[in-house]
Amino acid sequence: MYQQLKHIDIFKSLSNDALIEISKHVLGVTYPKGTILIHADKIEPYFYILQSGVARAYSDGENQQITFWFGESGSVLFSFNSYINNKPGYENIELLEDCALIQIKLADLFNLYHANIEIANWGRKIAEQELIATERRLIDRSFKGAAERYQDFSNHSPSLLKRVALKHIASYLGVTQVTLSRIRGGK
Amino acid sequence: MYQQLKHIDIFKSLSNDALIEISKHVLGVTYPKGTILIHADKIEPYFYILQSGVARAYSDGENQQITFWFGESGSVLFSFNSYINNKPGYENIELLEDCALIQIKLADLFNLYHANIEIANWGRKIAEQELIATERRLIDRSFKGAAERYQDFSNHSPSLLKRVALKHIASYLGVTQVTLSRIRGGK
DNA sequence: TTCATTTTTTAACAAATGTAAAAGGTGGGC
DNA sequence: GCCCACCTTTTACATTTGTTAAAAAATGAA
């Protein structure tokens, strides 16, 4: 397992010693397209790193589903509220393709955080990177119109644009599917 | 300084030993209303904890300012991109009242993160809490209408509603001042 | 292929929000 | 107290986006 982790981007900042510690607790898993890996309103005990495939996080509203996150190879994938507050989360995570993932129990990860200072700081940086990306998206919702957000998305994530249904991209961008269709049609 | 930190909420999860370590590097400071404590496009070298007063973070657009964060007593206050990536940030932070703050150099804080595992995990939790709050706001922008976002804001932050100019609250909620005025008028 | 299902686009209309300008309100400094 | 600057509300109109429904296009399984 150690040999495998070594080549994954997110682990590249770690020393060999730290990586060996982590590798004792991880498992490679695969799930088919359509799997709901994380369920809303449940405490989900695993943390995943996506190695191949695409996933989305969404919440259910009264008459709509809002997709608010996409993951591709290299993304970390977990129930925010389970991970952070040990409480049931608000998001479902669905695999949009067959996926290969690295799996680690939250309990094991927390033990590592409290036993190994290098891993604790690695975990800190993961949260910080997610934070800055999320805040940028929030700000963009105010500054940029829907058309510009769509352009940015196509520029930064051309592969998601090809692989993910437009209805999911529409809600990710904060518009209805009809509006996204209008934007794409250039009207 | 240690005696002072002891009574601040954000430090309450720390052991005495860790708090003593931190207290060696912090300084209590005060700044008047109107001070721009953090400047966009600069690497800002300090991390602050707000003890009294109110602050806002905003970015400048072409013909508007977007406020995307408010801080009250207990909030942490720093340039995200300086702190996380050691690069110039995108936000200005303005004090909306006279403020008392605890100040610590980022360089010192990072040294503490790498020297003390308890402080490293404390820093991890700070980022995680900001992350979950920011993601919730992003999701609420899709699920809730402007009127409901305003209601939530008044319920959760009645004191901000009293102390902060409505034009700042409007952009925080993602609407124009005219729309906010309409919502408040019940129309 | 063909059929059934799902996704995407289009259309017509309704609702929400934005823009610009004016009027009213508020508070600080002289 | 008065004036000035700034903040908030109001009005009228323009624009964007949403809603609903239907048609067209794409997808996938037998």
UniProtKB/TrEMBL annotation, chains A, B:
It holds the Pfam family cNMP_binding. Gene3D superfamilies: Jelly Rolls. It comes from the Bacteria. Residues 10-104 form the Cyclic nucleotide-binding domain. This is Cyclic nucleotide-binding domain-containing protein.
